[in-house]
């Protein structure tokens, strides 16, 4: 029994919004045994178990009457190599970006577009993290999770995870699965994705004609650093809303009034709209009330200037949702988990 169980712990350092709420109980899991022990302790004490990774996709609106378990398990390994294909496994508590850097340092390609995303390996499949034209489902090769109902381990294939845009089985079956480790199929050969947004242009500006995966990673780090606030300096949870998928007809009605609307075809007569564009056009970019605000460079990101509470941030989000609904007839869905 190695779990260090603490009572009444501030979660300020464990959520990237920097919201200061307290957890009734708190522990860190360094291995599978710790996770199992936390499961049974929560049951014994009759409190829910809340599992967190980097806390970078989380909005806490009040004290947490639960056992908060931070996944802190570490370890990265190459499981097998087959020609240029390499199967890699990482423990849930590995921080995401250092894992991406590790893979690039091994000469393994695939994760470069997902550079500088906050959070942990174990949290990445929850919302199928994605950026610059790549989602983790594209590199995913399986994961092992603990079934919180039966205490048994289960391996999931890509199909079983039911990945979709910022969505997965694990997000839908909240509280059922505790992700312990994740596997990725990476490649010794580079097959770079440069088409999304400003990636190619940035490489040109960097003077790189024939980019490597490491070059792409550096370009993406530069792009992200310019637009997205560093949570260490300014509390935030990345994009606060999903880009809404709407019927093509609605997108075209908005475009008839706003020729510069940013949208992408989403198949089946649907269009995906840039929520950042909608929010900026509605005048919210740079808005601040107290310590809750909308980032001045990226309207999709809500920020905590210091002492904002989760409720204040949520209320700001709800005002934005109501305004976007009234102006454009579009429903914005909140992206992080709100507790
Ligand atoms: N835009 C605006 N105003 C803004 C922000 C964006 O007009 O304030 C426009 C941009 O000009 C651009 C379009 O919206 O034409 C898209 O912007 P951007 O490329 O910055 O991407 P995004 O749609 O705002 C999504 C992801 C990000 C991811 C980037 C790059 C979601 C919810 N967000 O943002 O993911 O890094 O694309 O792939 O899908 C996250 O999920 O936390 C996240 C940061």
UniProtKB/TrEMBL annotation:
<dbReference type="InterPro" id="IPR016166">
    <property type="entry name" value="FAD-bd_PCMH"/>
</dbReference>
<feature type="active site" description="Proton donor">
    <location>
        <position position="239"/>
    </location>
</feature>
<dbReference type="Pfam" id="PF02873">
    <property type="entry name" value="MurB_C"/>
</dbReference>
<dbReference type="GO" id="GO:0008360">
    <property type="term" value="P:regulation of cell shape"/>
</dbReference>
<dbReference type="GO" id="GO:0009252">
    <property type="term" value="P:peptidoglycan biosynthetic process"/>
</dbReference>
<keyword id="KW-0131">Cell cycle</keyword>
<keyword id="KW-0961">Cell wall biogenesis/degradation</keyword>
<keyword id="KW-0285">Flavoprotein</keyword>
<dbReference type="Pfam" id="PF01565">
    <property type="entry name" value="FAD_binding_4"/>
</dbReference>
<keyword id="KW-0132">Cell division</keyword>
<dbReference type="InterPro" id="IPR003170">
    <property type="entry name" value="MurB"/>
</dbReference>
<dbReference type="InterPro" id="IPR016167">
    <property type="entry name" value="FAD-bd_PCMH_sub1"/>
</dbReference>
<protein>
    <recommendedName>
        <fullName>UDP-N-acetylenolpyruvoylglucosamine reductase</fullName>
        <ecNumber>1.3.1.98</ecNumber>
    </recommendedName>
</protein>
<keyword id="KW-0573">Peptidoglycan synthesis</keyword>
<feature type="domain" description="FAD-binding PCMH-type">
    <location>
        <begin position="18"/>
        <end position="189"/>
    </location>
</feature>
<dbReference type="GO" id="GO:0071555">
    <property type="term" value="P:cell wall organization"/>
</dbReference>
<dbReference type="InterPro" id="IPR016169">
    <property type="entry name" value="FAD-bd_PCMH_sub2"/>
</dbReference>
<dbReference type="InterPro" id="IPR011601">
    <property type="entry name" value="MurB_C"/>
</dbReference>
<dbReference type="GO" id="GO:0005829">
    <property type="term" value="C:cytosol"/>
</dbReference>
<dbReference type="GO" id="GO:0071949">
    <property type="term" value="F:FAD binding"/>
</dbReference>
<comment type="pathway">
    <text>Cell wall biogenesis; peptidoglycan biosynthesis.</text>
</comment>
<feature type="active site">
    <location>
        <position position="166"/>
    </location>
</feature>
<comment type="function">
    <text>Cell wall formation.</text>
</comment>
<keyword id="KW-0274">FAD</keyword>
<keyword id="KW-0521">NADP</keyword>
<keyword id="KW-0963">Cytoplasm</keyword>
<feature type="active site">
    <location>
        <position position="335"/>
    </location>
</feature>
<keyword id="KW-0560">Oxidoreductase</keyword>
<dbReference type="InterPro" id="IPR036318">
    <property type="entry name" value="FAD-bd_PCMH-like_sf"/>
</dbReference>
<dbReference type="GO" id="GO:0008762">
    <property type="term" value="F:UDP-N-acetylmuramate dehydrogenase activity"/>
</dbReference>
<dbReference type="InterPro" id="IPR006094">
    <property type="entry name" value="Oxid_FAD_bind_N"/>
</dbReference>
<dbReference type="InterPro" id="IPR036635">
    <property type="entry name" value="MurB_C_sf"/>
</dbReference>
<dbReference type="GO" id="GO:0051301">
    <property type="term" value="P:cell division"/>
</dbReference>
<comment type="similarity">
    <text>Belongs to the MurB family.</text>
</comment>
<keyword id="KW-0133">Cell shape</keyword>
């Amino acid at each position: 029994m190695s779990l260090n169980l603490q009572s009444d712990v501030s979660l300020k350092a464990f959520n990237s919004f920097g919201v200061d709420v307290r957890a009734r109980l708190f522990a860190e899991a360094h291995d599978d045994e710790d996770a199992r022990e936390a499961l049974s302790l929560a049951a014994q004490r009759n409190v829910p178990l809340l599992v967190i990774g980097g806390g970078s996709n989380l909005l806490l609106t009040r004290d947490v009457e639960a056992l908060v378990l931070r996944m802190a398990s570490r370890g990265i390994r190459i499981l097998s190599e087959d020609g240029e294909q390499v199967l890699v496994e990482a423990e849930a508590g590995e921080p995401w970006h250092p894992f991406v850097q590790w893979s690039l340092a091994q000469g393994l390609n695939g994760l470069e577009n997902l550079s500088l995303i906050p959070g942990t390996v174990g949290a990445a499949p929850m919302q199928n993290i994605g950026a610059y034209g790549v989602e983790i489902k594209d590199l995913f090769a399986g994961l092992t999770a603990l079934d919180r109902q039966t205490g048994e381990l289960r391996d999931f294939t890509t199909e079983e995870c039911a990945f979709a845009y910022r969505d997965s089985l694990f997000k839908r079956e909240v509280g059922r699965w505790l992700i312990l480790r994740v596997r990725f199929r990476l490649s010794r050969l580079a097959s770079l994705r440069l088409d999304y947004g400003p990636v190619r242009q940035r490489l040109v500006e960097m003077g790189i004609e024939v980019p490597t995966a490491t070059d792409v990673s550096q370009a993406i780090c530069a792009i992200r650093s310019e637009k997205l606030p560093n949570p260490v300096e300014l509390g935030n949870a990345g994009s606060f809303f999903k880009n809404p998928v709407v019927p093509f007809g609605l997108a075209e009605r908005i475009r008839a009034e706003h020729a510069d609307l940013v949208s992408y075809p989403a198949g089946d007569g649907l269009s995906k709209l840039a929520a950042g564009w909608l929010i900026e056009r509605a005048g919210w970019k740079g808005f601040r009330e107290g310590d809750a605000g909308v980032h001045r460079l990226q309207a999709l990101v809500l920020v905590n200037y210091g002492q904002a509470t989760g409720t204040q941030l949520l209320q700001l989000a709800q005002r934005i949702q109501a305004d976007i609904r009234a102006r454009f007839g579009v429903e914005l869905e909140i992206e992080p988990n709100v507790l």
